[in-house]
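Run log // design_07
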């Protein structure tokens, strides 16, 4: 028993040590770190490390809690990446991706689920809802890095994808509720649309946004006043983690969406001018390291679930759906939303293509099953989502570093321009 305990500690320690150097190696190799972690997961499973691998599915409740923690930590990081140099005009793209691209993706997934996969109405709705959010966790390579880098140059593509991930992870929640409520009602006729619309869609979203902005502002004000009137200087990075959990829990208790609140709390604190830039960077760096730690554990277990047969729980239609969604539906929906912008097709295609799916989808799926345990095709929905995450990790993982590096280099000012 103790030997297994020590093996687990050694295996996890090995994986997290690798993660310490992996971001740098990933940039040199031009592949995303999740691909390497996935391979390590395959290897640890193959040698029989007793990690308690999924068999091949996780327990719904355990998966929900773990993915919930990982997503909110990542959302806080995304909020802290936002900077003052981005105008309202810059926000047009992520807002269009949320309010145009996301509905197109959901409608497409719903009809494909109904008429191609032959799922029931509630299961089709759930599939559409869980595939709505782009992922703030596995998409690190296509998002802003250092919150201070905004002062160096304006990175439009990565800002757009970071803001989109922060916004749509919370806005997908009402549609997961929709699937659960329709499943509970049994039929569309018995389902109360007005109650869902005003309560789950409008009210909870508004409360989530307001609560997040207020809490971020309140913490910023508190830090400023404590230093100004009592000489107490705050310079501990774990405040970001504390703020994450406090904001999420408090907002859920007052009937708001905690995912949105966490993102906007980070965003609000990032904009609070009287908190020093160095400290904002420290908060960002700490929450990013926590995100990396959780991500290592998740991807190792995800790799084990694949090796243990997760992907065999659906047929060729599920596999085809996964490729269609990642390679056709999201890119086309993104191009439709960005069609009116006067910029290169390559730039719009890059933003449209990198709609990376990941941990947010897993959270919504497990949350729905915990909330209502009578969905049809449960195993198939898990398998399809796993295929989409795997395809996203591999295809986006091999392309993102090179594509984003190309645009980053292209947008950086030349030496003579920096001097002006």
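design_07 sequence
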């Amino acid at each position: 028993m103790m030997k297994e305990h020590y093996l687990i500690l050694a295996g996890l320690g090995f994986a997290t040590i690798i993660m310490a150097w992996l971001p740098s190696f990933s940039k040199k190799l031009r592949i995303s770190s999740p691909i390497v972690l996935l391979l390590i997961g395959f290897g640890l499973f193959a040698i029989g490390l007793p990690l308690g691998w999924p068999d091949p599915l996780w327990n719904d409740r355990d998966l929900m809690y773990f993915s919930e923690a990982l997503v909110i930590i990542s959302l806080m990081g995304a909020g802290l990446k936002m900077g003052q140099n981005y105008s309202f005009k810059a926000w047009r793209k992520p807002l269009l991706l949320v309010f145009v691209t996301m509905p197109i993706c959901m409608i497409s997934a719903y009809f494909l689920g109904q008429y191609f996969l032959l799922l029931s109405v509630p299961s089709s709705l759930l599939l559409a809802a869980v595939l709505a959010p782009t992922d703030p966790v596995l998409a690190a390579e296509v998002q802003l890095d250092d919150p201070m880098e905004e002062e160096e140059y304006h990175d439009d593509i990565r800002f757009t994808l970071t803001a989109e991930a922060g916004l749509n992870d919370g806005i997908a929640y009402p549609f997961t509720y929709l699937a659960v409520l329709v499943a509970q009602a049994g039929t569309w006729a018995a389902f109360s649309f007005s109650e869902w619309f005003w309560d789950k869609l409008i009210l909870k979203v508004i409360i989530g946004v307001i609560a997040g902005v207020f809490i971020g502002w309140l913490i910023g004000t508190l830090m400023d006043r404590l230093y100004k009137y009592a000489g107490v200087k705050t310079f501990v990075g774990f405040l970001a983690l504390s703020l994450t959990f406090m904001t999420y829990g408090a907002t859920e208790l007052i009937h708001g969406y905690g995912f949105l609140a966490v993102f906007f709390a980070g965003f609000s604190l990032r904009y609070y001018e009287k908190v020093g830039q160095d400290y904002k960077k420290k908060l960002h760096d700490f929450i990013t390291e926590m995100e990396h730690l959780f991500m290592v554990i998740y991807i190792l277990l995800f790799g084990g679930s694949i090796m243990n047969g997760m992907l065999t729980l659906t047929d060729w239609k599920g596999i085809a759906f996964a490729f269609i969604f990642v390679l056709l539906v999201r890119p086309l929906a993104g191009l439709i939303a960005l069609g009116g912008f006067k910029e290169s097709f390559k730039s719009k295609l890059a933003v449209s293509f990198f709609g990376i799916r990941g941990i947010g989808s897993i959270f919504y799926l497990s949350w729905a099953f915990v909330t209502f345990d009578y969905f049809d095709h449960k195993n198939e929905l898990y398998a399809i989502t796993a295929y989409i995450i795997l395809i996203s990790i591999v295809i986006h993982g091999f392309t993102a570093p090179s594509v984003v590096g190309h645009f980053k280099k292209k947008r950086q000012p030349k030496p003579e321009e920096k001097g002006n």
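The chain has a mean pLDDT of 86.
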